[in-house]
Amino acid sequence: MSNTEVEETIKRLSANKYVKEVLIVNKEGQTIKSTLDETLSKKYSDLITKLVEQTTFVINEMDEAGTNDLSFLRVRTKKHEILVAPGISQLTISRRYFGTNNTIRIFNQRRLQFLEAEANSFPNDATKQVEYYKELLRINNHNAVITRFERGNFAHDDECFRAYITALAKAGQADKVLPKIIQKLEQSGVTGVDGASTRATSTNDLVHTIVKSQGKKTIAEGGPSVTTSNAGNKENPIYVVIEGARGYMFWRALRWVGITFTYAFCIITFLSIAMENSGLLKTGGSQSEFEPSSQQVVKFSDVHGVDEAKEELEELVEFLKDPSKFTGLGGRLPKGVLLTGPPGTGKTLLARAVAGEAGVPFFFMSGSEFDEMYVGVGARRVRELFAAARRKAPSIVFIDELDAIGSKRNPKDQTYMKQTLNQLLVDLDGFSQTEGVIFIAATNFPELLDKALVRPGRFDRHVAVPLPDVHGRMQILSHHLKNVQISDDVKISVIARGTPGFSGADLANLVNQAAIQASRDGAQEVGMRHMEYAKDKILMGAERKSAIITNESKKLTAYHEGGHALVALYTPGALPLHKATIMPRGSTLGMTVQLPEMDKDNYTKKEFLAMVDVAMGGRVAEEMIFGKENVTTGSHNDIANATNVAKRMVTLYGMSDKVGPVAHPEEDMEHLSSQTKLVIENEIKSLLENAQIRVTNILKTHKDELHRLANALIEYETLTQEEIESVIKGKAINR
């Protein structure tokens, strides 16, 4: 823009009645000169000439209140700005204004100060007050409008009152709007019907003014327009929509999604349960779940140590091979066979041997496989299992761990808990002897089964599968050692006699452990020492060679175990001594093991007293060598075992003269009189004290032997029966 154009613009602005002054401000917003200063007016042309050469001249024209007048003029350089400020409130600065925020702020402040000064100078001029009120509303200073209007020191008209009502509405005091309007109308003296009509009309006008103002604001901010014509009456009501904050809308949407997913999950779960129980989800190949087992065929020749149980099951094989042999004379085969016995005795193996010998399909399931989280699944699986077995008849159905579904029913149990058992009872009783389907079940706890399940007609035969005796153990060991390379020093009879109480699974584990140890030692064959190592590991636990044991603790343990060993050697009726060790095994620091030469089914009073004496030997040895004040907690298990044996002698076996041949089981103790309880307690205590006296006499008599045995245990850590007998005689050990 040239100097001539600038001067013409300045002249045009000077002629405009709205232009009050021209400001020159620096970059920091400080006023340098004003047109109110006469010196500036004289030098104004020269100043414009100098600045315009390096200046970008910007002119913004506003079309506000129906005018096309130039609102302001700004000449900007690197250091200064020349502003032409408007003097009316209707002309507002556009947001497109190309200037600094600081400049706009100063411009607004000076304009507000000017209008305030005008309003204060002419308090009776309502027009001045309206201009000031509108400027305050423009900068959102609503409280200032409310305070000034309510002060009552300045003139006001309807325009001022409208500004006041608008300020109340925008300041969040909308509840005061209607009372103020009514008060205004009452002050104007409007009464009667016409007054009411006029009051309503005036009220509507004011409301329309507020709505129109809000609508213009919405349009200016880019929102939807508000129609103000005839709004707010009965025919054309105003609809208000309240929107929450952005965070509220987010949590509201999140809650809606969560509720939707929850309902969907519940509906899908319900439908899946209903469809599964109704059979709609079944496919043609669903019966593949109940296909015969295809594992390796087992014969009766693979079963050892349970000859009596094997003989009973051979009848089932004959029935499956030739049913007419039994039905021809009017006999019928048992519908079900229940195998009972301790774990690892071969119950499952016997059932597989029956299927293998008969050559019929074998259906196997565990008791825990029937029930799941859905009600009715167990009963359905029982039906499908027996249906599949009937289609494959002749066949065998074997359920292991029957107590999982056949436990005794309780009237307090829920109905769904009984469905599986009830279905099993129905299917068992529904068999006929010509169907060719044999039901075999196994359990370790026959006493837990429901009486309706084990009655004749369902389980006609109960077969006990006990732990193998010494001959059975020899057969089992011979069977498992067939595929193991053993040395000539392995004596199966010795191993069988030294493993009383071992089940078939324990013996198989013993052979496997021995073979593994021989491989670790690099031996070509499994020797007797490997078998002994495996037996000791099963009986006493694995050695803890890395455990750090002090010399004092090792010495105390040696005397403790030596006391057990000597009492076992010199007490009549005690079980033969097998081995003594102070090598930590499992959770113990030492151990003395006794093994019977043959299987024992019952015990005498003499043998029970010997058990108590041997158990007390360790504690008495500690007291004798180290004193009563140095007795350790290592004998707590020995005392518990001795007390248990003495208690059984008094309360169960009638081996007390004072209590007599009366049985007092543990569950009946609370019903006994206090006098009887006192007699029982005194008898138990007397047995333990007498045992302590006997053990003390034995160890005092053989005190030198106790020292020799303890020193040998400290040196060699583990001693066999032969080595113990040599040590106490003063002989050397050859290793």
UniProtKB/TrEMBL annotation:
Its main location: membrane. It comes from Cetraspora pellucida. PANTHER family: ATP-DEPENDENT ZINC METALLOPROTEASE YME1L1 (PTHR23076:SF97), METALLOPROTEASE M41 FTSH (PTHR23076). Keywords: ATP-binding, Hydrolase, Membrane, Metal-binding, Metalloprotease, Mitochondrion, Nucleotide-binding, Protease, Transmembrane, Transmembrane helix, Zinc. Residues 333-469 form the AAA+ ATPase domain. One of its GO terms (cellular component) is mitochondrial inner membrane. The keyword Phosphoprotein does not apply. It is found in: Membrane; Mitochondrion. GO terms for molecular function: ATP binding; ATP hydrolysis activity; ATP-dependent peptidase activity; metal ion binding; metalloendopeptidase activity. It comes from the Eukaryota. HAMAP family: FtsH (MF_01458). The chain crosses the membrane at residues 256-275. This is 2952_t:CDS:1. In the C-terminal section; belongs to the peptidase M41 family. Belongs to the GAMAD family. The keyword Membrane applies. The lineage of its organism: Eukaryota, Fungi, Fungi incertae sedis, Mucoromycota, Glomeromycotina. One of its GO terms (biological process) is mitochondrial protein quality control. Its cofactor is Zn(2+).
